[in-house]
Amino acid sequence: AATLAACEAADAMLLGAVGGPRWSDPSAPVRPEQALLALRRHFELFANLRP
Fold first, then answer.
1. Can you tell me the distance from the alpha carbon of 4 to that of 10, in angstroms, rounded to the nearest whole number?
2. For the chain, which has fewer Cβ within 10 Å, the N-terminal or C-terminal residue?
3. Can you tell me the distance from the alpha carbon of 41 to that of 26, in angstroms, rounded to the nearest whole number?
4. How confident is the model at residue 16, as a pLDDT?
């Protein structure tokens, strides 16, 4: 909840890489990318632009 409030109060968000070998188990109950997907869903973002 605190992260979401901070994102809402900010003028912009910069998202970096998530995950790694520690979280590479596909059967894990929680995965790092779930947080990014939740942020994109909350802010109704649909594009993932990369350089």
1. 10
2. C
3. 22
4. 83
pLDDT > 90: percent of the chain: 22
Q: Give the chain's radius of gyration (CA, Å).
A: 13
Which residues lie below 8 Å from residue 9, measured CB to CB, with a gap of 6+?
none
16: which 2 tokens? 């970096």
Q: What's the pLDDT score for residue 50?
A: 75
Nearest residue to 45 via CA among 15, 20, 16, 17: 15
pLDDT under 50 in the chain at which residues?
none
Q: How far is CA 41 from CA 23, 27, 33, in A?
A: 22, 23, 12
Q: Which residue has the tokens 């894990």?
A: 28
